Amino acid sequence: MSRLEILKTYKIYIGGQFPRTESGRYYPLKNKKGEITANICLSSRKDFRNAEVAARGAFGGWSGKTAFNRGQILYRIAEMLEGRKEQFIAELILQGATTAAAKQEVELSIDRMVYYSGWCDKFMQVYSSVNPVASSHFNFSVPEPTGVVAIIADENSSLLGLVTAIAPVIAGGNTCIVLASESKPLCAVTFAEVLNTSDLPGGVVNILTGASAELHPHFSSHMDVNAMIYYRNNKAEIKTIKENASLNVKRIFVYDQLNLNAASAQSPYFILDTQETKTTWHPIENIGAAKAGY
Amino acid sequence: MSKKEPKLKFNAAWELAPAPEDTKHISIKKQYDLFINGEFVKPNSKKYFATYNPATEEKIAEVADADERDVDKAVKAARVAFNSWSKLSGAERGKYIYRIARLMQERAREFAVIETMDGGKPIRESRDIDVPLAANHFFYYAGWADKLEYAFPNRNPKPLGVAGQIIPWNFPLLMAAWKIAPALAAGNTVVLKPAETTPLTALKLAELIRDSGLPKGVVNIITGAGKTGAAIVNHPDINKIAFTGSTDVGKLIQKSIAGSNKKLTLELGGKAANIIFEDAPLDQAVEGIINGIFFNQGHVCCAGSRLFIQESVADVVIRKLKDRMETLRVGDPMDKNTDVGAINSKEQLMKISEYIKIGKNEGAEMYQSSCSIPKKGYFCKPTLFLNTSQSHRIVQEEIFGPVLAIQTFRTIEEVIEKANNIPYGLSAGVWTDKGSKIFNLTTKLRAGVVWANTYNKFDPTSPFGGYKESGFGREGGLHGLAAYLEL
Fold first, then answer.
1. What is chain A's percent helix, strand, coil content, to nearest 5?
2. Quick check: is A1 in a domain?
3. Cut 0.90: pTM above it
4. Which of A147, A246, A277 sits opposite B479 (nearest CB)?
5. Interface pTM (ipTM) of the complex?
6. Residue A164: phi, psi to the nearest 5?
7. B244, B254, B432, B487: best mutation site toward chain A, by most A Cβ within 10 Å?
8. Which of A120, B260, B312, B331 has the most CB atoms around it within 10 Å of its CB?
């Protein structure tokens, strides 16, 4: 007797939990033959706002973790990705990729996560400075995470675009809300399951599925979002995002020409995008001035 | 505090004789044109506007009002100059910038006097802080010009092109230096607009740049008000906008260039928390509070305008603070003994007065120094407000004047929460003798510059700039180069 397969319900990921969209809306995802393969949550403004609250709530804890610990958690994500490799490949094939392309995308995604895992406790040394001020002060500058980052991920990639966008942001201690590819959303939901089993605190990464056309004004106008990164090339959306950003002086980064497969798609400068520079001053007792012969 | 408490009388024993700085050695023209392509040219509009000495209300000079066509002319000159300037070797670019630094040091006293005349800040500050720091900025960035590849590992930095730079009236020459020096070191050319109330030192800088032999069009300095600034922001052939000023205007700029590929850095308003713990060296802390809020009449974006005192020492700190306020000499900015000079303009004085009224109406308790202020000119007594709370407008909004809002706190968690609970994030101050407490605070305060047991210190090597609505990008240090480079 043949066994009836259990189908997966694709849900969104907010605050470490998997709710359906509060709006109750969905859109059907179809395969090449036009058959429906899944019903995907069509996330709403309210979902985004809920996710932002989760991200803000998680920021203190995540940014307060040691860099070493963050690196371990990112590495754990890579481990979990590796374990689910076959599932991701199957989903990519289901969404139209060839077997070879699917395998390459998953492997590159895993390696990219490992790459950023390593940066967690290194970029700070590369980008920090002790500043030789011309007065009796000790003065140093260090990068600190910007805060809550809203991301609209690449549309043409199901997994690699997501990893490329999320990894540098959380490696730097930020929390984020990510809108996954609308046409290739399956891996995003599975990736959320990976995150949920990787010791990543709930709320650090929140993943929504849905339409950028609907959500980009809300992502960019939210007053408690500190930065936004946009990986698509819709000129009208870019303009709206930049305009809305001025409401609370959001930092905006647009990567409309990024080749996700290239080595240039990963670098510590992507971490630096969502870092602020903090400079601290403190007086020093000027021994030299006292002519001490030490 | 009881009313009978004895008060220190600092000025009872003697009065300081006036010690005015000599102004005979300076040269100011009656009328200034626009500095475009290496020479002073008449404005297209043929219009000029006056710039006044805020301490005397007397007219000092007239400066040209640049319109869109003048801006276009300046941008074109900068574009042409960019072709050769960006190709010049870094070492040669650096030598030009070193020359500017040296010339400024040589003419330092003249710059200081004009800065004080035009802006109202005490001569002590323009002489000891503004002008030397401005020269040092040029000197610092000159040396970067041939070392850019060392600043950004694994990158091949390239200049952006023409930079449009708009600067405020609180540190006119210093802000011009902060903007121009890194832009030139990185190989860009510049169109700079000083604020309409303080254009003179920028125009003197234009003369100095002309004398330095810097290639024509590399730096263009044009004067005008908001309309001129808007023309720079909206000019299609500008690659980069750098703005220092109010958060409101910064937001307008960010919005208006949304459809373009212009790069942007913003250094905007602030409402810094200056936090005094019970274990702080209180006398030093009081000096820090005074310096934090009354430096440059409080016309400082990073002014320590919100004071948080730990409850257990609030009475003593407030008493010491009031005593110290009494000793501040308010008046003629040109007098070498003056601590607090003139408010920059009539408009600004009106804005400050309005906030003082708001503070009183909100129920806060006001205290002002009993000093006398000159009858002529724009002056404001050093002012503090007690019993303020987070929701008060004088606590939430940037006043940009010598007005301090004081709150008390009990725990570290409370004061961090209050300090961060504001849209701004430019700077903060922490006063305590305990090292671990300093680092706890300085890592949790969401601000770009944190002064621990000191306040309002600046240096060319030290990156300056804000978190949140205080803007983005840094000025100073190698961080400041990133704003003018394609990495």
1. 45, 20, 35
2. no
3. yes
4. A277
5. 0.95
6. -60, -35
7. B254
8. A120
